[in-house]
Amino acid sequence: MKYEEEKKGCSSGAEDREKHGIGWFGSGTVIQAAAEWKGKGDKKGTGEAEKKGVTEAEGSAAISTISRSPSVLRAVLCADDTSLDFTLMAEKQLEILRGYELRLLRCTLAPPPSDLRIQSQPLNEESQCSLLPLHEHINSLIDSIESGHYLQALSSDAAKLVLDTLDFVDLNDSAECADRVYSALLQRVETFIVNDSENDVDKACRVILLMCLSIAALFWFTQCNVTGPSVHNLPKCRFPLEVSTLEGNELIEWENWARYQLMSVGSDLLGKFSYLQYIVFAKMLLIKTKDLLFDATVLPVNGIRTISWWLTRLLLMHQRILDERSSSLYDLLKVFMAETLQHFGTLENVTTYWGNQLHDIDPSEIVSTVHLEAGLLEHIYRRVDSCRKHFESAEVAAGLQLSVTGVLGFRTIHQVEPKAQMVLVANTSSSNTSDACPSISQVIHTHDSTIGDASDVFVTPKLLGNSHESETEVQCIHAGGSAAHLKAIQQAVILSKCLLIEKSSRQDEMQRWDMAPYIEAIDSQQSSCFILKVFCDLLRIRWESTRSRTKGRALEMMDKLV
Predict the structure, then answer these.
(1) CA distance linking residue 150 with residue 241, whole number of Å
(2) Side by side, which strands form the sheet with 442-443?
(3) Does some domain include residue 240?
(4) In angstroms, rounded to a whole number, what is the distance separating the alpha carbons of residues 344 and 342?
(5) CA nearest 529: which of 504, 498, 494?
(6) Is the pTM of this model over 0.85?
(7) Range of 61's domain?
(8) Which residues pair with 401 in a beta bridge?
């Protein structure tokens, strides 16, 4: 059905509407009336729609289309103030949803100052209408995830919304029962997103809610099996969500069922893992949600772009717990990582997606993290050239230019004459370092420190004096001075060089010495993220356990880690 342009409609708006293929839905009053078709059926709004000849199907199509992207929202703008109000409301909804995505991502980045928080809380109750309860659930879930209370998130009222119609009667500890429950869970996910929602914004909120539950389950599995701390007095074979009929039961066969699900990609597990149902639960929810997003009748996948990133992370964790590399997982990882790089692989894409919501987060950290994870993926599958390319991109995005040089110094307590020591030089740009980090090039080192009395070899070399070079302005600081302060993402980039050296050079004693400047650079930092410090310690243990003078210290460090 075609409509004539009204005089008060702007010509540029008509061109944009035609460009986006959304037709013309009249003035702002008609747009608002079209929205009512999918709302509570306001009589005035419905009457306006009927007066303009807008059918219910066309009204549904209108509100579905214009709520999908800011460009389409701007395209339907006319001179009527009501259209402006409606557009601002929809844009605010989109901003809130992307704020949720950013808060979830920030859980895996460096922690921000405690007094700063991304404002994703809905600000206008009148504009939220029936969506307000969903926003409250999402905020509660993200608060729990940010504070590390993953089980609290999985047992929240939001999780009960997903389990609302699931049948948990006649349950028993068998693989057949587990398969039946998880299959019903997938059907419930589709119903929860498609059938229970009122409009596309409501669907997007439900997608975010399911993402939160999946991420909480993934984080819990990672904490229990990789990072710690371990949690005692909890059944290790349990259903991820809280169900009264299953509470306190050891579902051993359900856990075995989850193990077979993980091994179905063609490899045994690397070792003994607990809470396998959690990673299976997270994988099933995210993949099902992604499949629904891929269906254009539900919501455009570009509306919630971070889901590809989270799927990549989850599948990477799945691969890491397998004994062999899986080709089927790699096929999925290539697809999802390509989408992630397309969406967040450049500074422009990141700033365009989140705009002024970034606040205390440097967008370059997000870009660098994406390339680091892409490089890690290629490293796992032993594609050295692609790995190097992504690690170099991460280095550039982090504002680093790394090189190794020689500086006179002492490596042992009993050394009398200084000798040339390999040290790492980091050229850091002022825009990518904190205020405590100078913008000139600095040799990264630390004050005199040792780990116990197990060795007479310094953890990092004690450098001799200062030296200046007119071209590079390299500054060498005496032992006992302050090392260049690096962000967490910059420290991660430095450690990634060790992985590259490990894969691209011969495994001998010289390989460990090539990695030494990067290991010592992280040990020189006054503070590091826990997981980065542990990874650095593992690299040092591998290196020092092969040397007779440091083998005792390596064993001592391993005891502390275990």
Answers:
(1) 11
(2) 442-443, 419-428, 400-412, 457-463
(3) yes
(4) 6
(5) 494
(6) no
(7) 11-79
(8) 427
Which pLDDT tens digit goes with each residue over 503-551?
988 888 889 899 999 999 999 888 889 899 999 999 999 999 988 889 9
What's the number of domains the chain is made of?
4
296-301 long-range contacts (CB < 8 A, ≥24 apart) are 298/193, 298/194, 298/203, 299/68, 299/200, 299/203, 299/204, 299/207, 300/68, 300/69
Whole-angstrom Cα Rg for the chain:
28
- The answer to whether residue 234 is domain-embedded is yes
Contact between residue 293 and residue 299 where contact means Cβ atoms under 8 Å apart: yes
Compute CA distances 506 → 26, 149, 375, 379, 511, whole Å: 69, 44, 20, 16, 7
Q: State both tokens at 407.
A: 């500086």
As beta bridge partners, residue 402 has: 426
Which residue has 């170099």 as its token pair?
392
> What is d(CA 252, CA 543) in angstroms, rounded to the nearest whole number?
40
Question: How far apart are the C-alpha atoms of 368 and 364, rounded to whole Å?
Answer: 6
- DSSP code, position 454: S
Residues 437 and 487 placed together within one structural domain of the fold: yes
**Look-up of token digits 């009993």:** 414
User: Which residues have a Cβ under 8 Å from the Cβ of 52 and sit 6 or more positions away?
Assistant: 3, 26, 29, 30, 33
Best CA proximity match to 494, nearest among 424, 543, 554: 424
Q: How many helices (H) and strands (E) does the chain have?
A: 23, 4
Residue 278 main-chain phi, psi, to 5 deg: -70, -45
Tell me the two tokens of residue 266: 């063609």
**Residues 119-151: pLDDT tens digits?**
444 444 444 444 578 999 999 999 999 999 999
